[in-house]
Amino acid sequence: MAKLYPLFVGSASFFLSYYVRLSWTILSVYMPFKPTVAQEGFAFAIFFVGYVIVQIPSGFISDRYSGGIVISLSLIGLAVSAIMSALSPDIEWEYVSSLIMGLTAGWVYPASINVMNHYYRENRSVYIGYYSIAWPLAIVLSGFMLPYLALKIGWQWGYYSSAIASIVIAIMAFSLKTEHSGYSIDPSLIKNRDVLLLSFGGFLFFISYWSLTLYAYKYFVSIGISPVISGFVFSSMAITGLFSTSLSGYIISRIGTKNAVVISLVAYGIIILAFSFIRNAVLLIVISLVMGFFRFIITPGNSGLSIEIGRERAGSVSGIANMFWQSSGIVGPIVSSALILDVGFRNLWIVLAIMVFLSTFLYRGIATSFHTTAHHGDIPQK
């Protein structure tokens, strides 16, 4: 059990940093001040302004200091911001809460990646797959739990429950260690070709990802699907990801990290395109299940590529790349809300699919390969 403790705490911290931001996409529907589409997009974008600001410093700091302490302090701040959101009397208050939430959540990913890199050097890609289950699990639980909490107890408890969980994991994370690289802050890493390709390829993918995540639930409700069933369709976008994420390490060990990501991106783009033409709830559930399988191979694939490119400076590389990836959360909601108002959801899904297809060309240009992965010990040698 001791061997799995860092995995559980690292994954749980990653889960909470994502789950809390997802809460807005569902709980905003139940808030008494009824934010508009534009206000929803702006609040989501403000979160990512804060998140992006801390990405590069969080990466460098997690390389130099204890990743467990970084995670603990981040989760304590996340708990405070969640309580602030629960107390929001109006949209202006929520804007401030979202900014603070982004500023605190942004430290978790680089630090938790360093924790994984420190404790799981053997079969790393397999453990990264287990770690990344947090991503689809956050979507599944938010789709099932948040509508229920909002309807039965009150929307505020969606945030209160997250705050309690954040405090618990913060206490558990404090003792986790990471390597101290001994390197000083080196912004020149941002000029590395593979870092740039990973950063901009992920930027295009995540514009599509965050836009879909933010507006999918509202889209399902808008086409006449009940709020509860819409929550189930929303969760279906990640249910199969629980399996594909856990299997991703084995898939990557067979075909390589980059190949797994590129294949999954192509399939993901095709399925987003299908959203433009399907309005039946049952069919939407089916294609959402297929989407989730491929979507959540990309997540551990991105983490794996960050480690392969960065090696002992994985925290720095993941921080730089994640700064670009999460910048999409600023751009995506604003652009998408404008597209929804001007041309509707159907054309939005088409634009997002095109962005995903374009991202595959950037990922293909990354120099790391199956042979590189095997060489660095992620795959047991026979």
From TrEMBL:
It comes from the Archaea. PROSITE patterns: MFS. Keywords: Membrane, Transmembrane, Transmembrane helix. GO terms for molecular function: transmembrane transporter activity. The keyword Flavoprotein does not apply. Gene3D superfamilies: MFS general substrate transporter like domains. InterPro entries: MFS (IPR011701), MFS-Transporter (IPR052952), MFS_dom (IPR020846), MFS_trans_sf (IPR036259). Residues 3-371 form the Major facilitator superfamily (MFS) profile domain. Pfam families: MFS_1 (PF07690). The chain crosses the membrane at residues 7-30, 42-61, 68-89, 95-116, 128-151, 157-174, 195-217, 223-243, 255-275, 281-298, 319-341, 347-366. This is Transport membrane protein (Permease) related protein. It comes from Thermoplasma acidophilum (strain ATCC 25905 / DSM 1728 / JCM 9062 / NBRC 15155 / AMRC-C165).
